[in-house]
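Give me the fold.
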Amino acid sequence: MDVAAAVWTAIALATVPGAVLGWVSGLKGPWAVAAALPLTFSVYGLAGWALGETPVPFTFSSMLVVWLVTVIIAAIWRIGAWTLGRGRRQAVPVDGSTGPPPARPARTWRAWSTGTFLDPVWILPAAGVATGAWLLISRSLDWLKTGPHGVDSVFQGWDVQWHANMVRWIADEGVASPTRMGELRNLETGDPLYYPAAFHSAAGLLVELAGVSPTEAVNLTTIVVPSLGLPLSVALIAWKMLGNRGLTAQIAAGVAAILVVGSPVLYWIGQYVGAWPYLAAVSVSGIVLALFMLVPYRPLAAPAAALSLAGLTQLHPSAATIVVLGLGLWWLLRLLIRPARPAATRRGAVTTRLRDLGLLAGAGLAGTLLLLPQLLSGTEQAEEVTAWDATEDVTRTESWVKAVTMDTRHVGDFFSDVDPTLLLWVAGFGAAALILWRRNLWAPAFYLLSVWLTAHALRPFDVPGAGVLDLIGGLHYATAHRLVMPVALFTVAAAGVGVAAAIRLLTFAPMERFATAHAGRWRVGSAFASVILAIPAGWGAAVYVADTSGRGAEAAFMASFDSTRMVSAADRRAWDWLAEQPGAYDGLIAGEAAEGMGWMYAYNSLPSLYRHYEWPRVTRDSDTASTYWHGPLLGEGVRYREDAANPIDQAVEDLGVNYYYVSPWPFWAFQKPRWELMHGLWASDGITPVYKDGLVAIFAVDDAFTEEELAELTAPGQSPDPLPATADELAAVAGPPPPA
């Protein structure tokens, strides 16, 4: 399948299941499409976990069965809700009168079409979202195709090796349960490990349907998902900031969706650091937030909101704080003051507010309960996440400035020539319009909280309540380049509002209230002029983001694809060679985890002992540790008995290690090279060098092979570089020893 077809397959996999599920559950067409991403990943995550509790592998067919079950449940919910609502409408009047209830007034075309695809309010936002998504996807693909191996280029980063290996495992073994990731990483002990797998499940399905490699699948998935999600998120945030369906909201949503392409700290830095599932979760956070905000006005959307929260959490749980904090502030500063349903009495005012709170809390609780078995398994990993510390050597003033200007880690490396001043001024104008015109306090409050969290990550505050900041920030690894993402989401959304407000002012829309004699004509004329101006505004936004982020975006996106920091052409050649050798798939392949050897599993399923740059969960006296620290002692015997098996021989046998793989250098500069493996294996009596290509070397464990197999492995022409002579060969050349 060519790249274009694979991209469209990835788009379909990311959207179609969720869009259908959302529509069946009660969302109208445009909302179902908007909610498609988190709903789709909710299905993938739940299907992966549920199937992981059974012998049934996770495949497209088995996932389809789970998806159909959820669709049937959603249909039952919708039918039940409609029946209950119809029953209430036909109930006997509360005044005790008898006889049939009065007939409901006929619904007008406008009332019937509101919120559907026949409602034109979605056109401008959709145009902006499509433009933003196209800019991100097309540019990313064009650059990636120029990589050393095109779309199959290896991302030379820390976490992506693990993501690619998860995709390989899902594709090969059919295990997509986040609670079973210990089977992949902790090969010796099998200790449990929780790692959200919805993102990887989608990539695994892409491997199956499009016939691409795991590397290609993870590359394409990480382009498609945030490219669709980020424009949608900021569009919906801008829409909800204004709090109505008016033309200003439509223009703001469309423009914001384009402007998000130019934000360095969202898509581009997120791609560079390899935080791909995290970026995917952040990219759908605005969608989930907006969907929850719909629930008090349309309770039928509650199941979709609950499932969307489950989908976001199964991409990466950290991003759930964006939804929880944003929704809490919206309820406190907006919905509590102006409830979804007005009330005429004091008792009714209390009841309607309790109803709103109950709907929001019920949807959130339902989404949490869906994931309860998974979340309980992930408690220990959450503690590991919160242990990170990424403070920087900055002053207090610098921490605030960096947070507001979104000048966090890596921005200066690639976007030093990008000046955010214009964007910040436009966003400031939009914020002023929100506060003074729409009486919006929740969005500025969330923005300020996000800025505070980012500044705290750069330089912690020593004030009462800082522990709360530590708790929230710790869930995002306490790193400013992650915590700044919500700042950027709301800055871009506010900038969209600023552009829309300026357009409406230029077309004299506020003057409508004074044109009492011709208000209708004024409204139509102003709206027409606003739409006409919105088109060049969108075009200008596209030009602006291309000019401001062009060189930096390409450099950031390709930086980890163009290098050979972990995987070189020599590594690929070595893995291709090893895949053809005896015993390659019958046991494990040991080496140095920090050298990136785990990529061999994602590349062609070679069973590396390490699947992540970080170590598996083992003790210092484990077999894994023995093979790592003392590999050169293989075949060296014990004291007084050189031909006896030693503990290292036993550890290698117990693990089933057939080969050692060496490929310097380690990933981080502070990591010391494993000189014992790089040099010691060449002199070990229990190891035979079988392959050398520069610094890349492969060694066969003697006891795992017959003499004939070892002779085949060391035959002339097998190794690109000449191998050193063995002890037997040296003895043959030297001849028999002289007589005593």
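The chain has 32 helices and four strands.
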